[in-house]
Amino acid sequence: MRTPEQEKVLNASYEVIKLFGKKVLFTSERIRDSDLPKGIYKYEVRHDDECQGIMCEIAKRIFVNHWGTILFKEEIDLGPNGYRLIDEDKDVRWSTSNPLSLKQFIQAEKSKVCNIR
Fold it and tell me: For the chain, how far is it from start to end, CA to CA, in angstroms?
């Protein structure tokens, strides 16, 4: 049985973006690991020091300049230092598509896999 917080995470609306060429979900909220379903990975995003709202880094946890949270179905290689720099002009594509819930994102990904077979 899911907790109310887990239900909230599953049903909230997230922006769909492409990060490093992969479709991910983005929210400005912090999400606890314990509220995520298995198979969904969470990364936090740091913004620039000038507070212009430019994504510049992802890591498992961001303490200063937290910009948001990314949810993805695969692990992202963070390298030996545990973070990965982002060049927003090259690495991020903001989508014009409608927001998705995590539940819809999971279903869409499952459908894609089924359609391939």
Answer: 31
